[in-house]
């Protein structure tokens, strides 16, 4: 029996959805990895986080322009990619995107660090058994899936609360860093400071290291687009897109920068370089020692990662369902149900946690998760320029939507001129009044599009450049090859899927929202 349909998300819930997705494992586990990739250069390290915020801000503006010119439906960049590629063979772009989202849109990275931080909080050991870490990660994914499976509205309340906890943990880290910086709190550590040689390198980083470092930074910000995935589930999409999303991203960017500065202040350089995914846990141990506080705060970080798993499992399952409704997946009729879409996300996430070897599993998962999106963002940025300067596309002419007042309820139900396939059957109602509203035009500056395009192209191409020394268990080319291969696999599925025409001059108007 299907569970109740999740309730509409209000503005605060939409902000929590974004904040929960952004503030996950990235800010607690990636900084030390990024610091190692930039060879211990504190200036470049901080500069990369500033650059990451700029890239995300550019992406947010580009996605806003797309969203305001298309129906408010679930799917996020899937809808934008379809609009850009509407003259492609029907279904090709959708299948490529669907395979990247379903096969690589997993919750594994955050679930893995949830396991690491839980074991660190219990034992205080930095090198816990990988078997136990993976087991806890699987239980984490399973628990979140169960909540969305049987209690979808409770899941929404849960990630609202977790969003507040996440911000609180970041504020605590910032305050501790400030107290250490002004000398009110001592770490009792005479190790080398990260600020003694602020501009120096351990050695010059390779272009491969810089590209992977930027991928890790972008992963730390991943989630800025989360509201775009579930616009059909949002009460007021325009408010969320123009106010809630920018405010959530801007506030998180400021918090991130202050947090990484706090890491540099508290953790000595060599220890920070080798702290791995537990850098935030080591941060608290430096301040509180092996006390109950140093154990409790890593639990808070683990709960923060749990919130990220909760949000990702919700948002990506909604997208899985949307992709199935558009017939972009094998056995699409199966995945159109909410339970089946959740199960699909669970299966992929568990496989990605369990299958790779334990050595360097976290870095590999992160890079694999974020890499295919760079190619998609390159296509979206280039496509936006094409749409804007091709008169026949009629871009930015002011999208029109219909507002229909429903007689048997007090709300206003919104439907687009071109609506997408509904995820659940609409409630029967009679309409007493309709009105057509033209949305305001949003135009991204060309410099914004250029920054977003160049940054993503850099992250897409340079991971293929061999690093000077290969000292990892997983080959450097593995994650970009698998990421690109998944996109190719989507194209092959499109070519050989049965019973569907392969070539049409343009997509149906309903599918495009144009």
TrEMBL record:
<keyword id="KW-0812">Transmembrane</keyword>
<keyword id="KW-1133">Transmembrane helix</keyword>
<protein>
    <recommendedName>
        <fullName>Amino acid permease/ SLC12A domain-containing protein</fullName>
    </recommendedName>
</protein>
<dbReference type="GO" id="GO:0016020">
    <property type="term" value="C:membrane"/>
</dbReference>
<feature type="transmembrane region" description="Helical">
    <location>
        <begin position="368"/>
        <end position="389"/>
    </location>
</feature>
<dbReference type="InterPro" id="IPR002293">
    <property type="entry name" value="AA/rel_permease1"/>
</dbReference>
<feature type="transmembrane region" description="Helical">
    <location>
        <begin position="236"/>
        <end position="266"/>
    </location>
</feature>
<feature type="transmembrane region" description="Helical">
    <location>
        <begin position="131"/>
        <end position="149"/>
    </location>
</feature>
<dbReference type="Pfam" id="PF13520">
    <property type="entry name" value="AA_permease_2"/>
</dbReference>
<dbReference type="InterPro" id="IPR050598">
    <property type="entry name" value="AminoAcid_Transporter"/>
</dbReference>
<feature type="transmembrane region" description="Helical">
    <location>
        <begin position="338"/>
        <end position="356"/>
    </location>
</feature>
<feature type="transmembrane region" description="Helical">
    <location>
        <begin position="161"/>
        <end position="186"/>
    </location>
</feature>
<feature type="transmembrane region" description="Helical">
    <location>
        <begin position="442"/>
        <end position="462"/>
    </location>
</feature>
<feature type="transmembrane region" description="Helical">
    <location>
        <begin position="296"/>
        <end position="318"/>
    </location>
</feature>
<keyword id="KW-0472">Membrane</keyword>
<feature type="transmembrane region" description="Helical">
    <location>
        <begin position="91"/>
        <end position="111"/>
    </location>
</feature>
<dbReference type="GO" id="GO:0015179">
    <property type="term" value="F:L-amino acid transmembrane transporter activity"/>
</dbReference>
<feature type="transmembrane region" description="Helical">
    <location>
        <begin position="474"/>
        <end position="494"/>
    </location>
</feature>
<feature type="transmembrane region" description="Helical">
    <location>
        <begin position="42"/>
        <end position="64"/>
    </location>
</feature>
<feature type="transmembrane region" description="Helical">
    <location>
        <begin position="272"/>
        <end position="289"/>
    </location>
</feature>
